[in-house]
Amino acid sequence: MLTFNGYSVNGWGIIQQMNSKNHNSTFTYQNGHGYARIGQLKTRAGVVRTPTFMPDATRGAVKGLQPEQVYATGVQIVLNNTYHLHLQPGEAVVKRLGGVHHFGKWTGPILTDSGGFQVFSLDKFAKVTEDGVAFKDPINGDKRLITPEKSMQIQFELGSDMFVAFDHLIGLDDAKPSEVLDAFERTHRWLKRCVTEFKRLTAHLAPEERPMLFGVVQGGLDKELRKRSLDLVMASEVDGIAIGGLSVGEPRADMHDMLEYLAPLYGDDPRPRFLLGVGDPIDLRKAIECGIDMLDCVLPTRNARHATIWVSGDQKIHLTNGRFVDDPEPIEPGCDCATCVAGYSKGFLRHLFKAGDPLAGSLASIHNLRYLTRICEKYQTQDFKRSDN
Ligand SMILES: [Zn+2]
Fold first, then answer.
1. Exposure check for the chain: N or C terminus, fewer CB within 10 A?
2. Do 178 and 195 lie in a common domain?
3. Residue numbers of the domain that contains 281
């Protein structure tokens, strides 16, 4: 048995985190699919089979769905947005109402993002200082400040099981190399502050009660910076590695190229790997085969609310199309999602979308979420063949 850095690897490629503070997750490399791995991710809210897709329950709910409906699609974890819950209703209210699990009645694991992405993407006048990011509250215009420490405190108050470190995100489109480097260096100074604050907040918790902290790898499309960033995150006292700053407008080929570049660099590090903000089926498969264990995205539910759904072959169809007026078939005959099994016809769904009934978005969301979780479930099977895909 190989042992390195407190971890061990046995002869069958099973990696186990040894002497861990609390997490004893295992990941096994899957045969024949690049760097894809099958895992058992142990969190304080239960064990998660990986690879796994996590829908965004931005404000505490996956829009238009009850938790039972989300569970029925095979989803195991949801993501709550720190920024949105901080602004409304505020983490103090969520805490008084029992924390995010009790608040939204989702009993499975919950991951919260850092709030950084929204701060940077929703307020183009957000001001970055070494302390943190100052921005305007879009609800009442108040000035707000989120620092690395504040982000950890909000996620702690919310009652999240998996935290993400606060990072300095910049757009890829118009970023100068000097800005990318500046954000890169600040992100790692902030990571140290996040780790210190996270440890302070969780010091009193028993190991099995302790949440997890993910550090974020940045560096835009610069491979040298990405590698340095990954090395810094992997050397930190974090429980998981998050890959940020991809799927933010760059060409798909560039994102895939970066995922392929990073794949061998994780080595045998046993910590879970989370790719932020990616949920198109083609990208999901690519990410999994590049060793990613967890992904989140608003895409499946947002698309569904706009009548766009995926069918076999990762094709998109638009349910409002006139050719479906008299279509008596479900979205995809043979699909095991609750919407298709119940037999709702494409003609009925088209009618609901045209009538503006929110049930249409809910039924389509169920299909799209099941489409993604079914892909993940196939990768969770050791003998999964490409032809099964
Ligand atoms: Zn379906």
1. N
2. yes
3. 44-297
